[in-house]
Automatic annotation (TrEMBL):
Family: Belongs to the purine/pyrimidine phosphoribosyltransferase family.
Catalysed reactions listed for this entry: AMP + diphosphate = 5-phospho-alpha-D-ribose 1-diphosphate + adenine
UniProt superkingdom: Bacteria
Subcellular location: Cytoplasm
Protein name: Adenine phosphoribosyltransferase
InterPro entries xref list: Ade_phspho_trans (IPR005764), Adenine_PRTase (IPR050120), PRTase-like (IPR029057), PRTase_dom (IPR000836)
Length: 180
């Protein structure tokens, strides 16, 4: 792990037993509050994609919006919001996905991308992968190309990053938490 990744990892607060016993919640608000850590985080993503031809950053509701907006600005790319169902005002495409207890849906505007657009899909973390998989399916349905799925944190024990790789999606995460 490099210096940037380790310093960002150390800035993430772990809240034990929240929202239920046995869960180690990774709280990113401490990274956002720390101007040095937040700058390192955004810089890690910007340096990753600097020089790439990126048309848009697709940011997942809601914490992905924070990273996605700064990244889109720095890359001189468009910002597309992947929202929870019912939050977008125009014609949308909807994709359902499985949760631990039930289903949820995400949507984006039908005209969010042009076929062939090069897109970075970003969220705060990869847990079970359901939201990112649903978002990637929406992007692909429009005909855009996903350059990479990116997140601040990977929680590989929950299986999401493996599911994304099974769908042939390249992944970049700044740091991971395994068994700690």
């Amino acid at each position: 792990m490099d210096y940037f990744s380790e310093s960002i990892r150390q800035a993430i607060r772990t809240v034990p037993d929240w929202p239920k016993p046995g869960v180690q919640f990774r709280d990113i608000t401490t990274v956002l509050q720390d101007r040095t850590a937040f700058r390192k985080l955004i810089d890690a993503f910007v340096h990753r994609y600097h020089g790439e031809s990126i048309d848009a950053v697709a940011a997942v509701d809601a914490r992905g919006f924070i990273i996605g907006s700064a990244l889109a600005y720095e890359l001189n790319a468009g910002l597309v919001l992947v929202r929870k169902k019912g939050k977008l005002p125009f014609d949308t495409l909807v994709e359902d996905y499985e949760l631990e207890y039930g289903t949820a849906s995400v949507e984006l505007h039908k005209d969010a991308f042009k076929p062939g657009d090069r897109v970075v899909l970003v969220d705060d973390l990869i847990a079970t992968g359901g939201t990112m998989l649903a978002a990637s399916r929406l992007i692909r349905r429009i005909g855009a190309d996903i350059v990479e799925v990116a997140a601040m944190i990977d929680l590989p024990e929950l299986g999401g990053s493996a599911k994304l790789r099974e769908e042939k999606l390249p992944i970049y995460t700044v740091c991971a938490f395994e068994g700690d």
